[in-house]
Amino acid sequence: MPREIQTQVAPEVAANESLLKEHVAKLFHVSGKEIQKVVLLKRSIDARQKTIKFNIKASVFFKEEAYQETKLVLPDYKNVSNSQEVIIIGAGPAGLFAALQLIELGLKPIVLERGKDVRGRRRDLKAINVDHLVNEDSNYCFGEGGAGTYSDGKLYTRSKKRGDVDRILQLLVGFGASSDILVEAHPHIGTNKLPQIIQDIREKIIECGGQVLFETRITDFVIKNNEIQGIVTQKGDTISANKVILATGHSARDIFELLDRKKIFIEAKPFALGVRAEHPQELIDKIQYSCDFRGDYLPPAPYSIVKQVNGRGMYSFCMCPGGVIAPCATSPGEVVTNGWSPSKRDQSTANSGIVVELKLEDFKPFAKFGALAGMEFQKSIEQKAWHLAGQTQKVPAQRMIDFTQNKISADIPKTSYVPGTTSVEMGQVFPGFLTQIMREGFLEFGKSMRGYMTNEAILHAPESRTSSPVRIPRNEETLEHLQINGLYPCGEGAGYAGGIISAAIDGEKCALKIAEVLIK
User: Fold this and answer.
1) Can you give the C-alpha Rg of the chain in angstroms?
2) Which of 205, 261, 453, 456 is 20 to 30 A from 234 in CA distance terms?
3) Which residues contact residue 249 at a Cβ distance below 8 angstroms, ignoring those fewer than 6 apart?
4) pLDDT tens-digit readout, 218-239
């Protein structure tokens, strides 16, 4: 029977299997030859002290104990070609994992995605970066895999109570992700690896008899007697359906507008908005690791920081060590930023969204839009940024200290944001209250992280798609009492998820509920 241990080790020990065996042998007061295998269960960095350690949780197999390496296998997915059909709108994490769960339960998913497949999306991403052209249906937010495909693949979630996080991680490993994601405290796949995993999921859905239809945008719902009867596509086709999972993501503004027109109750939801700050990764390493040189055994340092400023939270969001900033507009005439890292996190810069909590009262100037007031507030800032940046996908930018001093930066160095930057005083982008909170907040950040406040740091505006500005109300847990029978709001776009893992869990939850209804 293996024995479970928890211990702290030096970074070089955590990175070397032989050294780790020797360390474990000393703990048990035995020779290293007596240790057959040390299997990592969890690993995290403790950088609170000057000497940095790794926290290790592991199973230890001694020489006489049987050990066999286990390989994760996918569930026994059925062939559902002739099974009852369920429509899924959106091929992001919620939609794809809903489809896999339906297949596992013996139902046939038909996934409708407004954007293109992962390969087709690449051409449209190049068009944004190089030609400043935004395809409204195929961009960093829309297309196969949703916003997550080209937005890092971070898998950390605080939503442990929402469902089985380990199940989602294991499925991702089964589809090709590194098994490290089962061990790391803050698992991450990387933008360079996630597209292939997404493609493999799609191929499995099709292999099992499901369907995935790209470039199929929904323009209307067919509703009769408060029940969903079908959907209408942009081509004018009507697809009959009495069970529909609506998993369109937090940026599908046309869907929110459609729901509003159909008198389906939606409500404005608070979200957070701010800038994306980019530092040299080397500087963040020095701050976080208290060293001049990170060395070979420590990963590029992340950071997480939260402050209360004038009664509001200001915090880091979607921090990307060794990453880059990307243009994430979903319509012409707007500028939006986001960040991502490749699997090795080996870029020379670190970036993070630095955002401020918004309140419903902030949306009062847009009250005439009703439930869409928050969305219109969000849109107005993105459009203002576009105008200030010369009506291109260049991004308004300012050095951090200059921002706190209300001073236009004389020059902006080249950043990781490929379309380029325009030197702007950020107060022109944001409402006055938001600008003031961020100025005070950055000063507070500088007190907590000495060296963080520097003009080497460049602010890019805006970081505005942190979560959905609209909620489609439902009973979060039981999914009972749906507004429209058969229409299941799901994932980030419904306001019930915040990232790849929680969206995937919510997709599975909707699929399970539908199976409960259909399979007697």
Assistant:
1) 24
2) 205
3) 90, 92, 141, 142, 146, 147, 491, 492, 493
4) 999 999 999 999 999 999 999 9
